[in-house]
Amino acid sequence: MNNSQFIIYQTESGETKLDVRFEDETVWLTQMQLCELFDKSKATVSEHIKHIFEEEELQENMVVRKFRTTTQHGAIVGKTQSREVKLYNLDVIISVGYRVKSKQGTQFRIWATQRLKEYIIKGFVLNDDRFKTGNSMNYFNELQERIREIRISERFFYQKIKDIYATSIDYDPKDENTLIFFKIVQNKLLWAISEQTAAELVFRRVDASLPLLGMQSYDKENSSKIKKNEISIAKNYLQKNEIKLLGLIVEQYLAFAESMALENTPMYMKDWISRLDVIVQLNGKELLTHAGKISHQMALEKSNAEYTKFKETQKQIEKENSLKEIEQDISKLSKKLKKGDNE
After folding, report:
1. Closest residue by Cα to residue 277 from 296, 252, 258, 295
2. DSSP for 245-257?
3. Backbone CA torsion sign across 271, 108, 136, 45
């Protein structure tokens, strides 16, 4: 029974879904599992359960069972101990889900409300995926496929990382914290390969006197079409060896992601940051533990100033080239006129 598990997640299209591993055609979760499901403390979940029974929303003797479990003894090696554990069925899970205030609780209510509307309209609820596959835990199968597609894609490393994070249980593209999260991860990766944050890379490497303003990984064929927003992107200033190292670290990260999906381990966004730290350290690189010495605003002002210088230089070069073309045309015309006079 303790293996019963809920997974609340969002599909690529943003649809909230819930998959559950059934045991004997029902679900029983411990209080600890309820805490994990809704990302709330034991005290909070206990308070909600207490109110559910006090308000007689549910009858405790109908929805709670005691199961005896055997675990390793905490103090004596090799010895086991037996104790009774309370488990709560699907009715309690749904009731708690409508009371908790958390991101997971919101996702749960979205899912439950969708199913309730379907039931009212159709008179029944179908779980097509479950009946087609004979397996209620489709989340990890979907996840493995998505991660494989990400790994073999031609997308740049950062985009692959973003794609991986989008598979997190608590991922919400509209949440401001998601943007902050991506910035943290980007800076951790950049620091690992260059010992500079994104702002420091731009501030220290942008230079109007250098080809492509110092951008090492920018497409040279587009040198005449450099846009203002491109000169403030840190990855454009990475050197060849830094790009290679970044690719190796990201590939290790993707391999880890696939192994977690294979082992049916749900990942939250906070988990990805801690795992990234482990991978960075395994590569013998320093962890970023500060905000850096250069702010985003400082980097933006410096890159904009250098871009202005660059554009002025480009205008001057274009003017000089135009004058040279005019001189060449005049010279050719003069030669033709002289040739005509001689004839």
Report:
1. 252
2. HHHHHHHHHHHHH
3. positive
Query: What are the helix (H) ranges across the chain?
Result: 31-38, 42-54, 60-63, 90-97, 103-122, 128-133, 139-152, 157-165, 176-194, 198-205, 240-262, 269-282, 296-342
- Asked whether the beta carbons of 175 and 168 are under 8 A apart, the reply is no
* Most confident segment among 4-13, 16-25, 178-187, 232-241: 232-241
Cβ-Cβ contacts under 8 Å for 32 (sequence gap 6 or more):
42
What does the H/E/C string look like for 118-157? HHHHHCCCCCHHHHHHCCCCCHHHHHHHHHHHHHHCCCCH
Structure letter (DSSP) for residue 343: -
- Mean per-residue pLDDT over the chain, rounded: 80
Q: Render pLDDT for 134-151 as a digit per residue (tens, 0 to 9).
A: 455 566 777 788 787 877
Per-residue pLDDT reduced to its tens digit, 55-67: 999 999 888 988 8
Query: What does the CA dihedral 277, 279, 282, 288 come to, rounded to 10 degrees?
Result: -30
Is residue 98 helix, strand or coil? coil
Largest CA distance in the chain: 118
Find how far residue 73's CA is from the centre of its chain.
39
How much is the pTM?
0.60
Length of the chain, in residues: 343
- Torsions phi, psi for 97 (to 5 deg): -60, -30
In terms of pLDDT, which residue wins out, 22 or 269? 269
Give the number of C-alpha atoms closer than 13 A to the C-alpha of residue 25, restricted to the C-beta side.
0
Region 219-231: mean pLDDT is: 76
Contact 119, 125 (CB under 8 A): yes
Whole-angstrom Cα distance, residue 287 to residue 189? 9
The answer to whether the Cα torsion of 168, 172, 177, 180 is positive or negative is: positive
Sheet architecture: strand order including 80-89: 28-30, 80-89, 64-72
* pLDDT tens-digit series, residues 97-109: 889 988 888 888 8
CA distance 168 to 144: 13
